[in-house]
């Protein structure tokens, strides 16, 4: 499984000194982690360090240092002054399916019988809390502390969603569970912190830790509770207990896609682990593993607990998605539209099985907000297909040798001035700075699809002065082309032929070729279908553009501005007959259809945007994996165009609203999600039959 943490046991320290060093490092890391959630080590490194310490202690039981983190809840770091009703335990970890199997076998040997059933649930990456209720009213909330006594954080309870002030019944109970910041809450927290001049949280867990402890903050940060245990609700099997918690009004992981599931066998439990691991990137909160528990209360009672962890539950750890590494430098790259984007150059680090050497830094304002410096130890986040990003520096780890990040004075590509009016800086030449890149983009397969107009030719055309923008392509003559190096008779004819074919590309592709910010292939198809002609698009006000699915007021304003900037180019394209296709606009068609429905005239059927007639009418279709059979040659954009021709709506993510998933070879998490949600899944071959009439 890709998501599983490394299974190799790290080597034990080679000497008593190395062992003492390792213990000191682990103690320091655990102290920082439990103080404010920060840590000089990533989670994987900490786990590996503790396993190495354990290995040394197994070989030298007489040398175990009293401060060693092994065998202690919270690595011995945390303390508090309110005693817990029963110890708040930690969990033992396993790092592979084999380790899980031998753990389960050990448990069954101890019980002298097979485990009745397993319960598999996400290991939420937050902080454990105990919430005490008297007669159904919340009276006290405690952190885990050292497991025996915790800190009183009742003051923070108000801001914790899913932890009700009153339960549905007047019970005396103590709920236990995890408090965390969901990804959305994390973003909100950092937005509000930066507006108040505070440094952003490095990652959600440190944010949750800091927020729970903080008093008298001038702003509010919301958190979320997920219950997974309770005292005072005896006799319930684990899955029943979770259902009961939800009934009482507490949030549990049952409200998520990675819901706890009872599994009859360990093999079934392993499948569920894989599913939860595959769903991880799409979950709205962080998990750092999957917990496997003996479900039956009888099994739990017989197995009992050690001083640190129960014997009836174990955490199957997943690789951390956050890693700490060094920021070596910042590169400034100029994009197609003249945007000057900073990119972090990192000391390469493996996150979730992938080596990360670069990460996005968004924009200069973001760098300033995060207070980053070259040489900083930084938290880097990567999940699934998400572009890795630098979250924040570990300010406490600074040595004094860090250097400020130099911001460019002029455009790093053409040396002209920089427009700093918006958060994202741009070269004042805009897309002109990038004529070559713009031409290559416009000629690309999903835009005008001009064969033979790749990198070398585009450079030649621009540098020779024959082409300054897209419209110039359509006035090229054979004589002009023949003046270029390595451009023979045949090459010139071929290129002119390809350009000729491109002249009649449909509106969505011409629009996409313009490279307007925020309008990729999907958005271009929607805009083209919505307005029906370039004339109508150009005439549209921001409000009209905001009527297109997925365009908000901000994006609408950008499109209007960019279209105005492109007016001369668009006029010249129109003169050349490029982008002059006219279809029935959906907006108008919808009006006609509405009129017809209320007794008006016209029987014109609406087209485009999933409202047209066709085998996929009214359906939302997602494509994933590589296509095979009759669809093998189609790019993702062409697949989406096909779906829309057949009356459907093409979408890129699976949700409850998805009608059909076309899953090709190597389909991954989207397929898992579709199966989870009960969305029908079809093969490319079956789908090709369904839409055969619409295949070009
Ligand atoms: S059960 C006796 N279930 O992980 C019950 N713990 O690394 C022991 N955690 O201390 C805990 N999600 O803070 C349990 N579904 C889950 C959990 C979970 C996260 C935390 C909890 C625990 C830590 C151990």
Walk me through the structure.
The chain is an alpha+beta fold and 696 residues long. It folds into six domains: 16-76, Helix Hairpins (Orthogonal Bundle), CATH 1.10.287; 82-317, 2-Layer Sandwich (D-amino Acid Aminotransferase, Chain A, domain 1); 322-419, Beta Barrel (OB fold (Dihydrolipoamide Acetyltransferase, E2P)); 430-502, 5' to 3' exonuclease, C-terminal subdomain (DNA polymerase, domain 1, Orthogonal Bundle); 507-590, DNA polymerase, domain 1; 611-694, Rossmann fold (3-Layer(aba) Sandwich). Helix content is 35%, strand content 18%. The chain has 24 helices and 23 strands. The strands form six sheets. It has a five-stranded mixed sheet with strand order 2-12-11-3-10. Strand 22 (660-663), helix 23 and strand 23 form a beta-alpha-beta unit. Helix 1 (16-36) runs antiparallel to helix 2 (43-59), helix 1 (16-36) crosses helix 5 (204-213) and helix 15 (507-513) packs across helix 16 (521-531). Mean pLDDT is 88; it is low at 1-7 and 588-611. Residues 89-91, 121, 123-124, 128, 178, 228-229, 291, 310, 313, 315 line the site of 2-(butylsulfanyl)adenosine. 2-(butylsulfanyl)adenosine (IVH) binds next to strand 3, strand 9 and strand 12.
């Amino acid at each position: 499984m890709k998501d599983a943490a490394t299974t190799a046991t790290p080597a034990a320290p080679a000497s008593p000194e190395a062992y003492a060093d390792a213990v000191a490092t682990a103690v320091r890391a655990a102290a920082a982690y439990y103080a404010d959630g920060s840590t000089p080590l990533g989670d994987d490194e900490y786990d590996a360090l503790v396993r190495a310490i354990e290995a040394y202690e197994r070989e030298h039981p007489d040398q175990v240092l009293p401060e060693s983190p092994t065998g202690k809840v919270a690595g011995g770091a945390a303390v508090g002054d309110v005693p817990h009703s029963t110890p708040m335990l930690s969990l033992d970890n396993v790092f592979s399916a084999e380790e899980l199997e031998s753990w389960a076998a050990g448990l069954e040997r101890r019980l002298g019988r097979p485990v009745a059933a397993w319960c598999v649930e996400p290991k939420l990456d937050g902080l454990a809390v105990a919430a005490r209720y008297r007669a159904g009213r919340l009276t006290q909330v405690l952190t885990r502390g050292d497991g025996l006594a915790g800190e009183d954080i009742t003051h923070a309870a108000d801001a914790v969603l899913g932890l009700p002030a009153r339960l549905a019944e007047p019970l005396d109970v103590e709920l236990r569970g995890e408090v965390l910041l969901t990804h959305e809450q994390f973003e909100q927290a950092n937005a509000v912190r930066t507006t108040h001049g505070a440094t952003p949280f490095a990652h959600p867990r440190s944010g949750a830790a800091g927020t729970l402890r903080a008093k008298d903050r001038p702003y509010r940060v919301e958190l979320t509770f997920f219950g997974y245990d309770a005292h005072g609700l005896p006799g319930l099997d684990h899955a029943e207990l979770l259902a009961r918690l939800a009934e009482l009004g507490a949030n549990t992981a049952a409200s998520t896609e990675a819901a706890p599931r009872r599994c009859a066998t360990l093999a079934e439990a392993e499948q569920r682990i894989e599913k939860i691991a595959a769903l991880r990137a799409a979950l709205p909160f962080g998990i750092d593993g999957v917990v496997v528990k003996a479900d039956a209360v009888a099994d739990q009672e017989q197995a009992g607990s050690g001083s640190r962890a129960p014997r009836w539950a174990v955490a199957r750890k997943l690789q951390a998605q956050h890693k700490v590494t060094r920021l070596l430098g910042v590169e400034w790259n100029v994009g197609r539209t003249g945007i000057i984007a900073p990119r972090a150059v990192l000391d390469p680090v493996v996150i979730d099985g992938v080596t990360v050497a670069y990460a996005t830094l968004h924009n200069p304002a973001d760098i300033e907000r995060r207070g980053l410096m070259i040489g900083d130890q930084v938290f880097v986040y990567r999940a699934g297909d998400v572009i890795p990003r630098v979250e924040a520096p570990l300010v406490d780890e600074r040595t004094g040798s860090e250097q400020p990040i130099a911001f460019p004075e002029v455009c790093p590509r053409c040396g002209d001035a920089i427009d700093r009016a918006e958060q994202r800086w741009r070269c004042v030449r805009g897309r002109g700075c990038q004529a070559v890149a713009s031409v290559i983009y416009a000629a690309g397969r999903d835009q005008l699809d001009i064969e033979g107009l790749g990198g070398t030719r585009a450079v030649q055309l621009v540098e020779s002065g024959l082409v300054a923008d897209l419209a110039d392509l359509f006035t090229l003559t054979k004589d002009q082309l023949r003046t270029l190096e390595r451009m023979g008779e045949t090459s010139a004819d071929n290129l002119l032929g390809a350009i000729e074919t491109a002249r009649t590309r449909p509106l969505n592709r011409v629009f996409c070729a313009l490279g307007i910010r925020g309008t990729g292939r999907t958005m271009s198809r929607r805009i083209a279908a919505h307005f029906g002609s370039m004339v109508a698009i150009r005439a549209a006000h921001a409000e009209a553009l905001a009527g297109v699915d997925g365009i908000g007021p901000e994006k609408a304003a950008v499109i209007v501005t960019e279209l105005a900037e492109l007016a001369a180019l668009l006029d010249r394209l129109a003169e050349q007959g490029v982008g002059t296709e006219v279809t029935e606009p959906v907006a108008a068609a919808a009006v006609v259809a509405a009129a017809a429905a209320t007794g008006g005239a016209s029987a014109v059927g609406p087209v485009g945007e999933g409202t047209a007639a066709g085998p996929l009418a009214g359906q939302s279709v997602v494509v994933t994996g590589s296509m095979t059979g009759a669809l093998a040659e189609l790019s993702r954009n062409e697949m989406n165009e096909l779906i829309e021709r057949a009356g459907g709506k093409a979408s890129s993510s699976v949700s409850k609203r998805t009608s059909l998933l076309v899953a090709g070879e190597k389909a991954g998490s989207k397929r898992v999600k579709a199966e989870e949600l009960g969305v029908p899944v079809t093969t490319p071959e079956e789908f090709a039959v369904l839409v055969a009439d619409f295949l070009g």
